[in-house]
């Protein structure tokens, strides 16, 4: 049986049961090698304790019995496999906390991650917790717990997408950042985030920053600090928020360009003299939203030549929520969704 030392005959292998095969050439214990392989197609494994990136028993692609130690080594291995948008590669990461980011360092199409409920707690280095690294990436991150960037180093976002051809989808319980940089940054490409997003505990930076590309958030945005932190800032590109935005220290939303669509959201700041929405430029679309400003401020402050599109019950909601000014803006109510 498996616990016994097999007897070698020449260089023959010995099968002790239906699953385990040993190969050896000597008659002494310890000279036998388990040659059993656990093959899993199009899957690469990462184990923070038992994996290896070098030496004997180094990690191998499509082998559950040969995990890598790091996500970086797994990405390098995944790049050696053929991939398409419909024939993808999954990097399966053993559950647990990791301080290593998911950072792509080359064009990486069709490489996904399953974190199995584990968390990314990145506290150092010059990369975001999840980043395309400036390369075209097509990746889905499944089953993440907390994604956190806890230091404000250069590019110290929790999530950052900067390449025009990137599409990254992140599924997590919570995404949070550090106080000197935004938690989420997108300047190009597409980022779809299915998660709650929170600012740093003593943040003075914005929680979400959109300066280009396409951003979709399915979850709430929360900032509980009293610093000068805006929940969502958009200066270019398009952003769609399917969730509430609540802040404690500044305007909840600031628009200086691009298009922002809010679907069924409650948009609120509790800070006196701070607006729930400040629209300096760009297009604002509100779908059946409730908007609440700080004392003495506007629910919606849109005083340029910006477009403001109100859908559903938004007109009634805004009238009930507080003071709204649209001086100089083009207001369209109850328009058809486009």
Can you describe this structure?
By secondary structure, the protein is mainly β. It is 5% helix and 41% strand. It has helices at 71-78, 314-321; strands spanning 13-15, 21-23, 33-34, 43-46, 89-93, 97-98, 102-103, 108-109, 111-114, 119-122, 130-131, 137-149, 159-161, 167-176, 184-186, 190-198, 208-217, 221-223, 232-241, 245-247, 253-263, 266-269, 277-287, 290-292, 300-301, 307-311, 324-325, 330-333. The strands form 2 sheets. It has a 25-stranded parallel sheet that branches. Strands 1-2-3 form a 3-stranded antiparallel sheet, with no helix packed on it. The longest helix has 8 residues, at 71-78.
Report the principal-axis shape: elongated
Helix content: under 10%
State the helix count.
2
| Assembly status | single chain
Kindly report the average pLDDT value. 83
Structural class call reads mainly beta
Order of helices and strands, N to C? Answer: EEEEHEEEEEEEEEEEEEEEEEEEEEEHEE
The major β-sheet equals: 25 strands, parallel
């Amino acid at each position: 049986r498996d616990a016994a030392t097999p007897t070698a005959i020449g260089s023959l292998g010995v099968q002790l049961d239906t699953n385990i095969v040993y190969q050896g050439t000597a008659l002494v214990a310890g000279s036998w090698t388990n040659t059993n392989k656990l093959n899993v197609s199009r899957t690469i494994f990462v184990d923070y304790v038992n994996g290896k990136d070098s030496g004997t028993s180094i990690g191998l692609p499509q082998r559950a019995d040969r995990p890598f130690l790091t996500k970086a080594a797994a990405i390098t291995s995944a790049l050696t496999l053929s991939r398409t948008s419909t024939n993808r590669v999954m990097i399966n990461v053993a559950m647990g906390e990791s301080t290593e980011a998911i950072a792509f360092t080359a064009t990486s199409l069709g490489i996904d991650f399953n974190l199995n409920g584990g968390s990314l707690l990145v506290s150092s280095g010059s990369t975001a917790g999840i980043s395309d690294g400036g390369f075209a990436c097509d990746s889905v991150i499944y089953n993440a717990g907390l994604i956190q960037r806890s230091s404000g180093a250069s590019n110290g976002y929790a999530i950052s997408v900067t390449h025009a051809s990137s599409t990254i989808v992140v599924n997590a319980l919570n995404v949070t950042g550090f106080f000197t940089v935004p938690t989420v940054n997108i300047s190009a490409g597409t980022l779809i985030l299915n998660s709650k997003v929170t600012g740093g505990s003593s943040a003075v930076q914005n929680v979400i920053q959109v300066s280009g590309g396409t951003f979709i958030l399915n979850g709430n945005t929360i900032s509980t600090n009293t610093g000068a932190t805006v929940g969502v800032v958009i200066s270019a590109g398009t952003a769609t928020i399917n969730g509430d935005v609540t802040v404690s220290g500044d305007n909840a939303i600031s628009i200086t360009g691009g298009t922002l669509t809010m679907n069924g959201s409650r948009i609120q700041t509790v800070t006196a003299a701070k607006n729930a929405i400040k629209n300096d430029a760009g297009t604002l679309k509100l779908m059946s939203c409730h908007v609440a400003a700080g004392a003495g401020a506007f629910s919606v402050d849109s005083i340029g030549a910006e477009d403001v599109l109100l859908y559903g019950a938004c007109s009634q909601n805004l009238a009930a929520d507080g003071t709204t000014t649209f001086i100089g803006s083009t207001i369209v109510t109850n328009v058809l969704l486009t």
